[in-house]
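Researcher: Please predict.
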Amino acid sequence: MNQEAPSRVAVTGVAAFAWNDKGYDADRTWRAAARDIAGGDALATAALLTFFDTQHIAPTFGTQPWQEQAPRLKATLDRVRTAIADGDAAARSGAIADLNQCADEIANAPDIIRSGTVDPGFATQSRPWLDAMQQWGRALKLTAAGLDAASQGSSAALRYFRDAERLAAVAAAVQSIPGATRFDGPIKIADGVLDRFIADAPMMISVDQPQSAGPILKNRGG
């Protein structure tokens, strides 16, 4: 996004690097930018850092991005994948619980960012990104519920996964504010990380498809 208020994060990084390139610390600079936009509020700062992570990618002219997308989220999702594939029941349960907490953080961050503690210009100009992020967080929440149900052998997992897929489609369809960015189009939130995990989740734990109960035979008496 190239609107004025959200761009302050990048401008802060440029200023910090120009001031002391040898001592530059990207993570510390991001935290400082988040605190500034949040007016010093700790909860809003954490929500902004969750949002920033979903926008971490920095494309380049080569084959690989200069900065990878959503490294903090990817680390969490990779741990979940590993626990499901290789861990015991306790490890799997713990990983799914962590995933559920991660989903809550993503789903709740937009409302916190929209609150009065954050620069209103940032929230206004980031509106489509926050809308999409909330939907992606809800989709991930349902995905976590699906994995939890699947780990217990419950066919309810299939319903959770279907609803997660539906919400993911809604999130992926959110559009940028027309004319506000250099390129109009669908909003990207942790693209290649979050969407891929939600799409892969139904195949991580095998669940039997419930068979149709068939027609109910009524006792007609006589």
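Model: The first helix runs from residue 4 to 19.
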